[in-house]
Amino acid sequence: MARRRRSPRALLVLGALVVALAVLGAPTAAHAQSNVQAFMTLYGWADNSPPGPGIANPCPGRSGFAGGTGTFSDPVTFATDVAELGWCRVIYVPYMKRYFIHEDECSECDANWNSSHLYRFDMWAGGDADSRKKPEKRALRACESTWTRANSVTDPNNPTVIVDPPSNLPVTTAPIFSAPTTCWTPISITNPGKQSSVLDAPVTVQITAVDASPSETLTYRATGLPVGLSINPATGLISGSPTVLGRKHVTVTVSDSVDAAGVNFTWIIKRH
User: Fold this and answer.
1) Residues 6+ apart with CB under 8 A from 200
2) 80 and which of 13, 45, 109, 182 could share a cystine (Cβ 3.0–4.6 Å)?
3) What per-residue confidence (pLDDT) applies to 23?
4) Which CATH architecture has domain 187-270?
5) Domain-wise residue ranges, the chain
6) Contact 109, 122 (CB under 8 A)
């Protein structure tokens, strides 16, 4: 989660000029698609400065406040340095399955770009007036931390982000944070709970998962299954006949093209 600030007055004037030129139909430069590695952080109502949905540079045709559904036609607000990426430029974040548009300023992004020319993008998570107090404030901060990737602009594990992306990439429009306490989960798995089976007896246990993006295909993987059991990677059905007595600690992981989620449970194999 990044602390950020509204831009200084000079940047506000610059933003207003950009908007005015766009409204007047001034030509804008075409940008070719590119991929960059970026430190991805999030901010919301409670840690905006000042608190609320205010932004430095509302883009033409937008609400004038931080927001958006994440589609190509209605991207979510993000903040960064204007020298790093110009106003109203659009990015696509694969692990979030959303498009974002540059409408705000980020002091940490300014510092990172000025010192090292490394990319940092601060994505709008949401929230409302109640997120300035507990328990919503804690939930919003936790959600921001959940979706922050890596640890710094120099982290080699920072994700790849598409700048000036095509319009047909997979999208989910579920809010990143829904008041009072709900944080977006791309893959929801139902934990089957503690399992108990009889040695050499046939077993079937269905792992149920739902992806927030209907276009995604889920893949199932399990570790720690009792000997004799296996999971169907396409359907999530665990089947077979256990052949060894004992207690096993099982982890089932469900993944799509960019995200993954898992559940853990115990499986006991007994003689009768």
Assistant:
1) 241, 242, 243
2) 109
3) 39
4) Sandwich (2.60)
5) 32-183, 187-270
6) yes
Q: How confident is the model at residue 15 (pLDDT cuts 50, 70, 90)?
A: very low
Confidence of residue 6 (pLDDT cuts 50, 70, 90): very low
Positive or negative, the CA dihedral 84, 90, 93, 94 is negative
Residues in the chain: 272
Which DSSP string corresponds to 225-244? PPTTEEE-TTT-EEEE---S
**pTM for the predicted model, two decimal places:** 0.76
Query: Percent of the chain, pLDDT > 70?
Result: 89
Q: Which of 127, 241, 228 is nearest to 179 (CA)?
A: 127
Tokens found for residue 233? 């990677």
Dist CA 249 CA 226 (whole Å): 9
Confidence of residue 213 (pLDDT cuts 50, 70, 90): confident
CB 59 within 8 A of CB 101: yes
Here the tokens at position 88 are 């109203």
Determine how β-strand 119-126 pairs with β-strand 182-183.
unpaired
pLDDT digits (tens, 9 = 90+) for 100-121: 999 999 999 999 999 999 999 9
Give the pair of three-digit tokens for residue 139: 């939930």
- Measured from the Cβ of residue 94, the count of other Cβ atoms closer than 10 Å reads 17
Token pair in block for residue 242? 């256990």
Tokens of 271: 């003689």
